[in-house]
């Protein structure tokens, strides 16, 4: 008969082996505060307050790595004196997770310092925005597609967004988040890797200002999320209020909500666009754009999009991301004959001056085709040719999908000597 420790080791080993065949997916759900009673609101508020006390107390230790994780009370600075406060809401596993997070942060800073980066030190926090819930079934439970429970909290929490988690997913852990006055539960799952069943296909992407994305299959994507006038009004109001007063804090939360709203829209667009491209194309070719230089010239226009975020997401998530050097003349080169010629910024149509070619094509579409061709050369891969009907059908499906995303306007220019919108 094996001991308890040996059984735990065997279970951990089996889990690690299983995780190698799975992919990690994180789902963010929102706790519906309209269903919270007064006791639950007080409990959640106290939970994050105690988490902040514990985090700051850990940082105040001479040797952080000798911290006792079974601590039940901590000293808290109140003006010029210290008072002892009890940790009544934080469970033992929550305390262990917060202390472990400090250890991980210190190790991360140490690794960066070894690599030559200039690093500082961890600072005390006036507000802690997340608490790890490391054990599913203990620190938190998912009861059904509507309700969850958290260790120590008597009331069941109604949560929006649990339906997006597949039934076959293995739930690993979660993080309780408090930001902009709202509570969220970020749930980490592991799922079986889905291999693409379609043949290897490639796509070239040209990023721009007037058209945020132009694909080599003739699709152009435009979107912009203007900033609401509310943040400016709230910022002026905040500057006139007494710092750290109740009204100042209410205004600060409202201001944060407005910023988060704009960020969430851009993040949603980025995730949906990248997900569609990743699932449809094995090879994605794009240029290493100098986004910082773009921001200096077209600051507001770049601010209202998330081009930098899309490029970063493609680098991390695409099956085979091919990055083309930024000095490659994708705009100047004719995608039909390879002729290189100068083209002004205000010229939106590329007209090849080679008398044997006379290619006329949309400027950005031409650039995207060149990036696709150059990317395939870099990895020495031949293009898989499709029939015109297959190309047109696939293009129309993608246009329809992109237009279903809020704030996006997608269209397609089919190359046949002239430009005709397909959608």
Q: What would you say this structure looks like, in words?
A:
This protein has 423 residues and is an alpha+beta fold. The protein has two domains: 172 residues, no CATH class; 211 residues, no CATH class. Helices cover 38% and strands 22% of the residues. It is built from ten helices and 17 strands. The strands form four sheets. It has a seven-stranded antiparallel beta sheet with strand order 4-8-9-1-7-6-5. The longest helix is centred in the middle third of the chain and has 35 residues. The C terminus is likely disordered. It comes from Candidatus Ethanoperedens thermophilum. In the C-terminal section; belongs to the transposase 35 family. InterPro entries: Cas12f1-like_TNB, Transposase. This is Transposase. Keywords: DNA recombination, DNA-binding, Transposition.
